[in-house]
Amino acid sequence: MYFLGLGLLLLAMKYQAMGPVANWSWWVVLLPFGLAVVWWSWADSSGYTKRKAMQREDRRRDKRRERTKMALEADAQKRRR
């Protein structure tokens, strides 16, 4: 995602002829887009993307379980009174 953001920034700067980027070759300006494609290809083929998605789901599940546990404990304490 960082490569894509950098590529968009450099592309906008080249298009607007801002700063030193205006004098750079188009190959240099477009390089971050190529790097983004390489990164995404590697991440998908290595399982990195799926592993990160599973970790996010596990964190959400654990938080949900903790909220449920706290709610059940609070409910049990109310009943004891």
In short:
The protein has helices spanning 2-15, 26-46, 48-80. It is an all-alpha fold and 81 residues long.
Structure description:
The model has no long low-confidence stretch (mean pLDDT 91). The chain folds into two domains: 46 residues, no CATH class; 35 residues. It has three helices and no strands. Helix 1 runs antiparallel to helix 2. It has 81 residues and is mainly α. It is elongated.
Q: Which bin fits the share of residues in helices?
A: over 70%
Tell me about the largest β-sheet. none
Oligomer: single chain
Low-confidence stretches: none
Average pLDDT reading:
91
Question: Tell me, what's the shape?
Answer: elongated
* Amount of beta strand: under 5%
Number of helices: 3
Give the strand tally. 0
Number of domains: 2
Cα-based radius of gyration, to the nearest Å = 24 Å
Distance between termini? 53 Å
**By helix and strand content, what is the structural category?**
mainly alpha
Order of helices and strands: HHH
